[in-house]
Specification:
It comes from Novosphingobium chloroacetimidivorans. By secondary structure, the protein is mainly alpha-helical. The protein is about 45% helix and about 10% strand. The protein folds into 2 domains: about 45 residues, no CATH class; about 55 residues, no CATH class. It is globular and about 45 Å long. The model has no long low-confidence stretch (mean pLDDT about 85).
Length: about 110
């Protein structure tokens, strides 16, 4: 996770500060975690998928491309997941619509 945060921090514009929302998985908030100086971690409450739009992305992928299957091997699982991910990446408008929170915008 520290390496992941370092990658994100490297993409932050000089002089800017990033806020990274994350769930409270143990590795997200581990005591040994190295958080870059240009970043603040914002843990969301547990069991609140409505506050974490990526949860809806994963659900969309399961519902549309990954459910009701029998996987034959680990490699088969990885292949199907990669195919689903690439299909989603080819549809940026879908990602935006899945992650949109109408209640989070002022009218």
């Amino acid at each position: 996770m520290s390496l992941h945060l370092a990658e994100i921090a490297a993409a932050v514009s000089p002089g800017a500060h990033a806020v990274v929302m994350l769930d409270q998985a143990g590795w997200h908030l581990a005591g040994a975690l190295e958080v870059p100086a240009n970043m603040t971690l914002l843990p969301i409450p547990p069991r609140c998928p409505e506050l974490n739009p990526v949860e809806n992305v994963w659900q969309f992928m399961r519902d549309n491309w990954l459910s009701n299957r029998i996987f034959t091997s680990y490699e088969n699982i990885v292949d199907h997941c990669c195919e689903a991910w690439n299909r989603l990446v080819d549809q940026p408008w879908r990602i935006m619509s899945i992650g949109m929170r109408r209640w989070a915008h002022r009218s």
